[in-house]
Design a protein that fits this description.
The protein is of the alpha+beta class. The protein has helices at 3-7, 29-33, 37-45, 83-88, 111-122; strands at 15-19, 47-51, 54-59, 65-70, 74-80, 90-97, 102-109.
């Protein structure tokens, strides 16, 4: 379990599902130009989790961006997958919160599993 997520769990909260980036993050121009250092940093520092109470996502190493939202405040979790994403098992997760806030997280491994677990937890 991720260090950030572990340190930010509240009373009686536990992780139900952790997600990570798909290996496809190593096959793009950004990876090539940084000699594959940038995707390695992303893979080992970014954290995605669904707990029994909320969704917690932390990205970034030096500058940190965190997204934490209670299940009751999330209107939908959408998954976008192209043909290659469907074949290889990765996609983009779009979380829409109440009030229209949108957060987008690309190239996530098994995005349909993430959405299914969220739906199970919010019922």
């Amino acid at each position: 379990m991720g260090k950030y997520i572990n340190s930010n769990l509240i009373k009686d909260e536990h992780v139900e599902l952790e997600a990570t980036y798909h290996w496809i993050i190593f096959f793009n121009l950004r990876a090539l130009l940084t000699l594959f250092i940038a995707p390695i940093i992303d893979k080992y520092t970014d954290e995605f989790a669904i707990t029994n109470k909320r969704v917690i996502i932390k990205t970034g190493l030096i500058s940190r961006k965190s997204f934490e939202m209670n299940h009751t405040k999330i209107e939908s979790v959408n998954v976008d997958q192209g043909i290659l994403g469907r074949i290889l098992g990765y996609g983009t997760i779009r979380i829409v919160g109440s009030g229209g806030t949108k957060e987008v997280f690309p190239r996530i491994k098994s995005p349909l599993e993430f959405r299914k677990k969220f739906q199970e937890m919010s019922n």
